[in-house]
Design a protein that fits this description.
Length: 232
């Protein structure tokens, strides 16, 4: 459903992606893991055609209207209420406004429907951005650090929503620094270090391959072994 073959990206003198290749099957949750500056957001920007690559090829098996996107820069209208933000988006996509109310319920924001976005907490704002990304029931969903900076309970709420979307048939591409999150949530992952994928596969498979188990399999240990760098 999502594919990159040997993608290269340069910003001036700096090569930020050096031949990145991976494939994501339909209905999978795929996690792109790596520290700050590894190239994760750049990969999302290239896949969603917001940025041109300097080499290689890539494709998504769904059109732009069947794709959902949640970026760090959320682009919500801060003076509008939660519900009105979703309604503006529903208008653009030509979908019934009744879905906006349902989407707020799905992320536990029904009581905040009338609150202006500028008065929301970070976790609430993130959940609203997620509600907007999935409002049009996309087949492919890109989530750039969906739980970054959230408390564990809010993060778990987002995890269960992502699992429900996958169970409904969506293909989910997410980025994270959090190995534990990736292990629990992702069907497959790729470990990215300075624009190079150093390992990929299912979390359990990767940990087994590298003998990286404490009491539970330890993706963090695989990353440190391969790169010498800690994530956090
Ligand atoms: N528009 C740009 N112009 C120049 N350099 C850029 C640009 N966008 C990204 N970079 C550089 O590319 C590299 C990868 O950045 P990217 O945002 O993809 O990292 P990331 O893995 O998403 O990091 P983070 O976890 O902090 O979000 C960084 O060195 C960054 O400085
Ligand atoms: Mg990023």
């Amino acid at each position: 459903m999502i594919r990159m073959d040997n993608v290269v990206k340069r910003f001036g003198e700096q090569t930020v992606l050096s031949g990145v290749s991976f494939a994501v099957g339909e209905g999978e949750i795929f996690g792109l893991l790596g520290p700050s500056g590894a190239g994760k957001t750049t990969i999302i920007n290239i896949l969603t055609n917001q940025l041109d690559a300097d080499g290689g090829s890539h494709s998504i098996g769904a059109g732009p209207l069947q794709t959902g996107l949640m970026l760090d820069e959320d682009g919500l209208y801060t003076r509008l209420s939660c519900l009105d933000n979703l309604n503006v988006f529903a208008g653009v996509y030509g979908i019934p406004r009744s879905l906006s109310v349902q989407a707020l319920k799905n992320v536990g924001l029904e009581d905040a429907a009338k609150k202006p976005v500028r008065t929301l907490s970070k976790g609430m704002r993130q959940r609203l951005a997620l509600a907007r990304a999935v409002l049009h029931r996309p087949k492919v969903l890109f989530l750039d650090e969906p739980t970054g900076g959230l408390d564990p309970a809010t993060a778990r709420g987002i995890h269960s929503l992502i699992l429900r979307l996958r169970d409904g048939g969506a293909t989910v591409f997410l980025t994270t620094h959090n190995m534990d999150e990736a292990y629990k949530l992702c069907d497959s992952v790729a470990l990215l270090h300075r624009g190079v994928i150093v390992e990929k596969g299912s979390p359990a498979e990767i940990c087994t391959r590298h003998g990286a188990f404490k009491t539970t399999p330890d993706l963090e240990a695989v990353f440190i072994k391969l790169t010498g760098v800690e994530l956090e």
